[in-house]
Amino acid sequence: LPSEASDSNLLIAPVPVVGAREEDELNAYLRDLIRLHDGHERRRLMYVAVTRARRTLWLSAAPAATADGVVKPDRRSALSVLWEVLAGRFETVGDGAGRPAPVARTGPVQRLLPSWRAADAPPGVAISRLPAAYLAAETTEFSWVGETQRHIGTVVHAWLARFAGEQRLPQPPDGAAARAAVLAALERAGVDERERAAACDIVLSALGQTLADERGRWILDARHREAHSEWQLSGVSGGRLRSVVIDRSFIDERGTRWVIDYKTSAHRGGGLDEFLDREIERYRAQLETYRELARGLGPEPVRAALYFPLLQALRELA
């Protein structure tokens, strides 16, 4: 119960006796309080709902009619809050029961000759690409990595795309401002606060390693022809209509079109070449799809590869 001295006062009543003919006064009082509270809450919600309208408010409802034809909404409904005032404003719309079905009007009937045959349908339109808005992008399976590692990759991809859009590549990000920006990006991505600092170190390392790598700077160079970052591309590959997002694509100085996917994998133990070989095999199907779609863009030869920012390594698909 509301109280002037505190938020509320606790009021307890025993559970009604099963089979009792009359309800205890205290239980009846509590029941009435709950009913009153629910009524006030319905009024509050209805007020909030109707006052959101800026110019026009339309109310529609389908309350059941009683046996004598009287329409009265359930007292527990939001409509009951306004019914006393607005009942006369509602227009009753019949359900059409008992009305004869409309007779369909047809044009003149013409008898066809027995030899008549329908014309052949025109051939279907060959589809090579569709706008990305009509297709769901196919994402790579990330079940083998943790959520934080996936978010690290997302942030690294976003920063590399930003670098590639600049006329002159910047120096490796350093200092408090860069760290604060990366931490904010990781927080927006949903990285747990306990893992955020370590994840930030990995992101800054990946960005710094890429900008310090000759091949990394070559990949991000904005002077390439037909350079794209986070490029949405759709088309037919392997007999299926696909939509993909290619991290980086361009035509180099020799006239070769590259499609490159970034991987923020870290190498732990074993030989580096063996690790890169395993990674290229892991993503072979994905790169082959990229390469096949890119071949439909022009006569240029197409090469597909993975680039590893943390390892300063580029591994091409054979």
Highlighted features:
about 325 residues; alpha+beta; 5-stranded mixed β-sheet
Helix/strand layout:
Blueprint lengths: L24 H26 L28 H8 L60 H18 L10 H15 L3 H20 L1 H7 L4 E13 L2 E12 L5 E6 L9 H11 L1 H12 L6 E7 L4 E4 L2
Parallel strand pairs: 3-4
Antiparallel strand pairs: 1-2, 2-3, 4-5
Summarize the structure.
The protein is an alpha+beta fold and 318 residues long. It is 37% helix and 13% strand.
How would you characterize the overall build of this protein?
- The chain has 318 residues and is of the alpha+beta class.
- It is 37% helix and 13% strand.
- The protein has helices spanning 25-50, 79-86, 147-164, 175-189, 193-212, 214-220, 272-282, 284-295; strands at 225-237, 240-251, 257-262, 302-308, 313-316.
- Strand 2 (240-251) and strand 3 form a beta hairpin.
- Helix 3 crosses helix 4 (175-189).
- The longest helix has 26 residues, at 25-50.
Uncertain ranges:
139-145
- Secondary-structure element series: HHHHHHEEEHHEE
| Major sheet summary line | 5 strands, mixed
Overall morphology = flat
Strand order of the largest sheet: 1-2-3-4-5
Structural class: alpha+beta
What is the strand content? 5-15%
**Helix proportion of residues, in percent?**
25-40%
Distance between the termini: 76 Å
Radius of gyration (Å): 34 Å
Total number of beta strands: 5
Average pLDDT for all residues: 84
The DSSP helix count reads 8
